Amino acid sequence: MISLIKASENVVQDCLGVKKGEEVLIIIDEKSRKIGKALYKVCSEIRAEAMLVEIIERDTHGSEPPKTIAEAMKHATVVIAPTTKSLSHTEARRNATEAGVRMATMPGITEEVMIRTMSSDYTGIADLSTRIAKVLSNGKTARVTSPGGTDITMSINGRTAIPDTGILHEAGSFGNLPAGEAFIAPIEGSSNGKIVIDGAMAGIKELDSPITVIVESGNVKDIQGGKSAEELTQIIESTKDRNAKNLAELGIGTNENAELSGNLLEVEKVLGTVHIAFGDNKSFGGRVKAPIHIDGVILKPTLTVDDRTIISGGKILL
Questions:
Q1: Contact 85, 107 (CB under 8 A)
Q2: What is the pLDDT of residue 205?
Q3: Under 8 Å CB-to-CB from 253, ≥6 apart: which residues?
Q4: Cα–Cα distance, 43 to 34 (Å, whole number)
Q5: Edge to edge, what strands does the sheet with 49-54 contain?
Q6: I need a surface site. Which of 39, 84, 121, 184 has the fewest CB within 10 A?
């Protein structure tokens, strides 16, 4: 197994292509200090202008960082954000991307997950993610079923899927690390059916039992289950924003080294899983802006795009 420093080298050099003299802003919080210091060390050794800043942990995934940090993000060359709560679906991140900043978010990353998943074959991940994204982009209707009881259909007609390859060398490129998924924003209002989340759920440390989410006309109508279901209901309702109920994303995991660790960042990348998110999708081709973006992972799914089965029982068929 590789070391945390070696994993950080893969992030800084292989995935983000950081070069001498580039200004790199590393944003951490209390839980990610050790990871931040490893990233800072690697950047310093290649003589990049590294800056390490710690913020208070955000309340939810998608909550904005402090204004000072948001402004600094726009002026860096590269931003790396191993924060507990995700900065991916924030105006601060979108503004930085529009300014040409290369950025990787690493929400909820742990040392163990980073070491394991950043040793993956990212060339292979890029190839598979790109092929799945192409099928999604050319599709009109997607249906997901699972042994747990998931059965939901959604329109993806006219939307462009994004391959999360982990290779972020171009100005304005953005992704999640560890990488390994292809994802798309379904047409708002088009999703109908039942989702049974039995892998992991953003914002919930451990599922006590599967969460059943009933979706009608693209929005969450009911959440059923045990304590975890109550927690998810509270997360959504606490925003006091109806857009938080929007079915925002359909994603497929493509990282062969990712495991069912209970860490959402890793679990949603597990090869052959499907994840469905609620809330914001403005960041990747949708029309909904919301204060949260939260993913739920479905195990052993079958995914059909139009008349073509892409995944069968958790096995990718491409």
A1: yes
A2: 86
A3: 180, 181, 267, 268, 269, 270, 271, 272, 273, 274, 275, 297
A4: 14
A5: 49-54, 23-28, 78-81, 102-105, 174-176
A6: 121
Domain of residue 65, CATH code: 3.40.1830.10
The arithmetic mean of pLDDT across residues 49-56, rounded, is: 98
Q: 177-216 pLDDT, tens per residue?
A: 999 999 999 999 999 999 999 999 998 989 999 999 999 9
Take residue 99 and report the two structure tokens written for it.
């300014």
Amino acid at 297: V
pLDDT value of residue 262: 80
Number of structural domains found in the chain? 2
Write out the two tokens for 193. 């059916």
Cα torsion angle, 53, 57, 62, 66, sign: negative
Domain that holds residue 253: 122-316
- C-alpha separations of 306 from 110, 161, 216, 232 in Å: 38, 15, 20, 31
